[in-house]
Amino acid sequence: MIQNFSDFEYIIVDGNSTDKTVTIIKSFEPEFAAKNITFKFISEKDKGIYDAWNKGVAMADGKWISFLGSDDCYFPDALITYFEKISQLQNNENYISSQVHVVDENGNVMRTMGKAYQWKNMLKNMNIAQVGSFHKRELFQEIGPFSLEYRIVSDLDFYIRGKDYIKPYYFKEVTATMENNGVSNQINKALKEALKVRLKYNYDSKLTIYLNHYITFLKCYGGKIKKGAK
Predict the structure, then answer these.
(1) Which of 5, 109, 166, 222 could join 80 via S-S bond, C-beta 3.0 to 4.6 A?
(2) How much is the pTM?
(3) CATH number at residue 116
């Protein structure tokens, strides 16, 4: 709502919340209408975040699609920045990403993440900032929807499947924040799912896949072990 840009549609997919979520969502409708922003929402049972994202893609009318979780937030100039970058694309790029700040529950920046999409890197470590990045809608027709086989890393699966389709553009600016307490913060489960994804596509030898998995495990847990030992 605080974006310095209004030529976009805002879609909320709620998983049939039983608290006051729907009432809160509806309370924003007049503000969207006043700013001439297309606003859509549904509230129904889903099979997790990726099912919700697939529903959002089906509801979207725009040429470019982005995803935010409930604890993610764009900076005020994020959409106008993306719009300007998209307007300058010259090589038929269909995926554009930047950087995000990972913050704690008080909004303190813990780290900055986000590198350029490179398919080979997806086989080792998902180091792109998926939060807030933009996908041309045709990508979902070419690659297919997010798989419901995974609850935490289906975006990794999507970007690996996108090997022959994704034409990336990257700019090194921070455009959003994400809290460090979402589903993907379940590190152990995420690592197990990521290993399952990489073994499924078999782009490397099993030895290489397991070795990269172990290295990622050490990167994720090494800092915690050192911190706990102090």
Answers:
(1) 5
(2) 0.88
(3) 3.90.550.10
